[in-house]
Amino acid sequence: VKNINYTKDLIKKINTKKISVGIIGLGYVGLPLSILCAKKGFKVYGFDIDESKIKKIKSNYSYIERINNKDIKILNKNGFFSSKFKNISNCDIIILCVPTPLKNKRPYIYHIKSTIKSIKKFLVKGQTIILESTSYPGTTNEEILNKLNKDFDIGKDLFIGFSSERINPGVNENKIHNVPKVVSGHSKNCKSVISNFYSQIFSKIVIANKIEIAEFSKLLENIYRSVNIGFINEMKLVADRFKLDIFEIIKIASSKPFGFRRFDPGPGTGGHCIPIDPIYLAYKSKKLGFNPRFIELSADTNIKVLSALIKKIFYLLKKHKIPKNKAKILILGISYKKNVDDLRESAAIRLLDILLKKRIKNISFSDPHIKNSINTRALTFNSRGINITPQNLSKFDISILMTDHDKFNYKMIYQYSKNILDTRGRFKVDSKVTRG
Ligand SMILES: NC(=O)c1ccc[n+]([C@@H]2O[C@H](COP(=O)([O-])OP(=O)(O)OC[C@H]3O[C@@H](n4cnc5c(N)ncnc54)[C@H](O)[C@@H]3O)[C@@H](O)[C@H]2O)c1
Predict the structure, then answer these.
(1) Which residue minimizes the CA distance to atom 24 of ligand 1?
(2) Which of 145, 157, 180, 328 qualifies as a cystine partner to 362, CB 3.0-4.6 A?
(3) Bridge pairing between strands 205-207 and 328-332
(4) What's the CA gap between 187 and 152, in Å, rounded?
(5) Ligand 1: does its nearest atom lie under 6 Å from the Cβ of 23?
(6) pTM
(7) Is the distance from the beta carbon of residue 99 to the nearest atom of ligand 1 less than 6 Å?
(8) From CA 68, how far away is CA 60, in angstroms rounded?
């Protein structure tokens, strides 16, 4: 039998664009990646255990606001979508984009484990498996490599690596191919196959020497944000004591052309990354006998800012002699970040939940990206969002700006709101506006 050089064969196939890419988990990461691959001319096999997503894709319907139906159509031209894993055998490159949430405040990597279990029987020699889900250093080796190295000769007939995902939701999504792509692989061959593949799609590849370095770098990027946001949120609480506006202070400090990177305070972090990823590293670090303190400190502070905001709501109500049970409150922006429709871990949802528990009944929200009633793991809120109109605004005692979407009409909000609690520094503090 002729000795097959899988590395050479696969690289040749990649460079002539004759590969099929299998993407497992078609959410915020997997769906745009599938589109990117399809646009580059690769055949795409998409897998998701959520049948409703498969159905929507097949009927050219996008379930993510910032992805339009036209792109789903492109996907269907040379793509095959299923909730069953049989077609894994046809894929040259298999990319895992499954969720890595927390359960009981701990990393929950069940989805990675269950994916490997389900696809194992369909794997064939010559394939590549890449983890794109964010997790603690060691995950790719422990959960993928160690589960397959009995049946395959890793680096010879199966290639394994990790590549981090760097979407900036609402900002660079149409240009993710221009964001430098971190790649890593188990061996020289793995690195070579994986970097060849990604350089077909991304304009710049950054190769990490070890898989764990790549995994750690993703966590470092997000912890850097979490810690700096925690820090600036703490500075906001300090500035409050001095009766100074933190946004004015930041504006002055930002004039320094070196050694100062601007971070803005807010009502607390949200999304799939910042509140979750740091805990992945802290968990593993503690297991190794070291307790990293910045991680917990910033997470605590990013929660604490919301309590400070709630105190201000009650202070304002008292000041205007509005009894709690009569208070009418409008939440402006319910998603966790501006210009996106993502509610995961949103501080505005936490606020809504707390206010309801404090028996404030008359609450509405307005969000140009979320029209429907709210149904998340954390909360069900049956009323739909309202539109920003002079009449609507003037009905409420306090309008709280939680998420400063660009689509909001700030002039109108200012003109017709009775009182504004602004957590984002969109308005100047005056008799109507309080910094939140
Ligand atoms: N959303 C972001 O901006 C972002 C950025 C960087 C990294 N990440 C990381 O990427 C990963 C995916 O995140 P996301 O935001 O796309 O999550 P998501 O929840 O939007 O999508 C994940 C998808 O995987 C599917 N799924 C779950 N288990 C599966 C299985 N066993 N087989 C097949 N499909 C399965 C789910 O049904 C869902 O559609 C996470 O590890 C996350 O930390 C996300």
Answers:
(1) 25
(2) 328
(3) unpaired
(4) 14
(5) no
(6) 0.94
(7) yes
(8) 9
Model confidence at 407, pLDDT cuts 50, 70, 90, reads very high
User: How wide is the angle at C-alpha 34 spanned by C-alphas 30 and 39, nearest 5°?
Assistant: 150
Phi, psi of 182 (to 5 degrees): -80, 130
Residue nearest to atom 12 of ligand 1 (CA): 99
Q: Tokens standing for 284?
A: 């593993």
What is the distance in A from the centroid of ligand 1 to the CA of 28?
Answer: 7
Supply the DSSP symbol for 430: S
Q: What percent of the chain has pLDDT over 90?
A: 93
The token duo for 107 is: 């990393």
Q: Which residues pair with 62 in a beta bridge?
A: none
Q: Given this model, what pLDDT does residue 171 score?
A: 83
**Spatial distance between the Cα atoms of 293 and 125, rounded to a whole number of angstroms:** 44
Q: How far is ligand 1, taken at its centre, from the CA of residue 168, in Å?
A: 15
Assign 235 a pLDDT band (cuts: 50, 70, 90).
very high
Q: Identify the H or E element spanning 46.
A: strand 43-47
Pairwise CA distance, residues 8 & 5, whole Å: 6
Q: Is 2's pLDDT higher than 80? A: no
pLDDT above 70 covers a percentage of the chain that reads: 100
User: Average pLDDT of 45-53?
Assistant: 98
